[in-house]
Design goal:
Elements: H1 2-21, E1 28-33, H2 35-38, H3 48-55, E2 59-64, E3 94-98, H4 101-105, H5 107-110, H6 112-129, E4 134-138, H7 150-163, E5 169-170, H8 172-175, H9 183-189, H10 203-218
Helix pairs in contact: 3-10, 6-7
């Protein structure tokens, strides 16, 4: 019994020490975007961003909707993201945007110049709304023929537009450990075993990406 008590006491002390030493504990993380945020048909609790927030003792607020675009209103999926600023929480310490996949899929309708304009408006509005927050942008994954498709155009534009506003961008198409172009990879790490799905990670896929995302976030925030 004494050994059990000592072990329990040591665990409590370790948790307490971690909470006191982690600068993110008690901070508010807001995640905004499309189905990469909402997690499509699986629970939000499976996502890497939810797991990141819980690991660091953060308050977590998810504002993702399947089908959302940065620059395009969609009858089924709602207003463009740049129009939704008023629907977001009043405060945030860490604000993560994950977007672009649906804009790439509809780029022929949107136009790359219009995407750049609307993303710029979104970024400017977020900086004004959250002047003390750390704002970060994550792109979509890669895909087959990435070098010659609309995803590359959207991702390159996102890096440029966000960069002009000092918003760090994680280029998940080029720098992640997610091989969305691979059928074999998606069969293991994507929802529905990757059948017809090049966007949505399953729980195992989120666990794989978490250390990469965590490293990027921790290297780009300050309090």
């Amino acid at each position: 019994m004494k050994r059990i008590f000592l072990a329990l006491f040591a665990t409590i002390l370790a948790i307490s020490a971690f909470s006191q030493s982690d600068p993110l504990t008690g901070k508010k993380m807001v995640v905004f975007g499309d189905s990469y945020v909402r997690n499509h048909r699986e629970p939000v609790e499976n996502t890497w961003h939810y797991k990141f927030a819980k690991k660091h003792g953060m308050e977590y607020s998810n504002h993702g909707r399947n089908g959302s675009c940065v620059a395009l209103d969609r009858q089924r999926f709602g207003k463009a993201m740049y129009k939704k600023i008023g629907e977001l929480p009043d405060s945030a310490d860490l604000f993560v945007i994950i977007a672009g996949h649906n804009d790439a899929s509809h780029l022929d309708s949107i136009g790359i110049d219009n995407y750049r304009l609307r993303l710029g408006q979104l970024c400017d509005s977020l900086v004004e709304k959250y002047p003390t927050a750390n704002i970060l942008f994550f792109t979509s994954w890669n895909g087959k023929n990435f070098a010659h498709n609309n995803f590359k155009k959207i991702i390159d534009a996102s890096i440029d537009v966000c960069g002009a506003r000092s918003i760090p961008v994680f280029d998940a198409a080029r720098n992640s450990n997610i091989y969305a172009h691979s059928d074999a990879f998606r069969s293991i790490y994507f929802q529905n075993q990757g059948k017809g799905d090049r966007a949505h990670l399953n729980a195992k896929g989120h666990d794989r990406f978490l250390p990469i995302a965590e490293s990027f976030i921790l290297s780009h925030i300050s309090y």
